[in-house]
Amino acid sequence: MSAGAGPGVSRTVEDEAQLPLVVDDPVTQRFRVHRSALTSPEVHRAEVDRVFGKSWLYVGHESEITEPGDYVRRSVGGRPMFMVRGVKTGNVNVFHNTCTHRGAVVCRQDSGNSKVFQCFYHAWTFDSEGKLKGVPGRDAYAGGLDFDELGLKRVPRLETYRGFVFASFDPNIVDLLTYLAGAKDYLDLVIDGCGGSAELVRGSHQYSFGGNWKLLVENSFDGYHAESTHDTYFKYLVSLGTDLRGGVLGRGVDLGNGHAVIEYSSPWGRPVAKWEALFGEDSRPEIDRLRADLAEKYGEERAHAMTEVNRNLVIYPNLVINDIMAVVVRTFYPPAPDVVDVSAWELAPLNESPALRQRRLDSFLTFLGPGGFATPDDAEALESCQQGYTSGGVEWNDISRGMGRDPVASDEEQMRAFWRRWQQQMGTAADRADAK
Ranges for the Rieske domain (predicted)? Predict the structure, then answer.
């Protein structure tokens, strides 16, 4: 019997074992995900190749490497990489962080500036364009060894959009703009809302928690949990004089290729250009000026979207941009089915005034920072889900909320968009028989 069998039709044990891990039934308006998709080591191993190995992955932002020789070290899809601004060309280069001699990591610092990168093991030395420049005892190598072929290995595909640097390990992947689909327009809103030029604020928030990475994807644009999980934050806002009676109104949007967003109006302020009492009366003139500047440059309708509409954007598979009370860029990778390593940065307008930057960072730390109202709550909730899966007895997660109507921000259409793309990429690796 097929996965889409109607109500009242019985399935055999053999039928159930062959069901896909994602069951999408528009007839009965049920969408389910088998919990082994969140616990199975076999599924995790397949994801490394079929999802992280076949997608465009976020590496960093061009503002991190503005000067020739500037570099940052990153884990991209679980692989050690580094991004460097070429000294000769000025290009953004992304290399596999491994020496072509015997494999040791070449770039050993998280960030800095250097014209050359020397492997500490045997002192092979490479320049910022990846060329092998130094080999101790080069004359000991007989003919046949081509040193020009032993430069650092570049990532197969590298493209940028509005300062965001993406790489892919799949040489045949579609171009980045095609891949981004509708997410491109939301990246434009974020950058244009920063006045057209943005930078990552120095410093990052890095942490791990005990849950499956796809739970963090769901959580990142799940409007349904906000009122219950983050009740303390809303009480905090009320104590400061924020009027929450209007509630949170918005929608979920499938942007194509697994990307999705929830966008919503809310009563809290945004340092971008929406004043509230929390920011203090002395900040009102500057914030009002920023709002007027955006309206003059982009028109009132677009300025409204930039300043008064919040958005939680997921770019498949593992990039999250929370453009809310602050703009947070977050990426993550799972070293195991039940562990996620997370890195987050704050994005801000270039040349922002010190006072406004301080308010922006306060907003980030208050809600999404290490000790904020949201991040610890979310990590606790996702770890609780992962613990609950070990209980057994329940096989499926239900993600049907809002099917059959125009999705609102508290529905789950955005999650279904992600899971449909995940199922497509995983193919037969996401059949229950293969997940055992």
Answer: 57-167
DSSP string, 56-118: -EEEEEGGGG-STTEEEEEEETTEEEEEEE-TTT--EEEEESS-TTT---S--SSEEE-SEEE
Six-digit token string for 21? 């891990």
> Rounded to whole angstroms, how far apart are CA atoms 21 and 378?
25
**Quick one: which of 23, 14, 21 has its CA closest to 43?**
21
Please tell me the distance from the alpha carbon of residue 16 to that of residue 38, in angstroms, as a whole number: 18
Are 175 and 306 contacting, i.e. CB atoms less than 8 angstroms apart? no
pLDDT in tens, 386-428: 999 999 999 999 999 999 899 999 999 999 999 999 999 999 8
What architecture is domain 181-428? Alpha-Beta Complex (3.90)
Closest alpha carbon to 68 in 46, 89, 99, 95: 89
Instruction: Return d(Cα 232, Cα 367) in angstroms, integer.
Output: 11
In the chain, what are the domain boundaries?
57-168, 181-428
* Strands 125-127 and 309-315, sheet pairing: unpaired
**φ/ψ bin of 69: left (φ > 0), alpha (ψ from -120 to 50), beta (otherwise):** left
How confident is residue 232, by pLDDT bands cut at 50, 70 and 90?
A: confident
> Which one is the CATH code of 57-168: 3.40.630.10, 2.102.10.10, 3.60.10.10, 3.30.10.20?
2.102.10.10
Task: Give the three-state DSSP class for 243.
Answer: coil
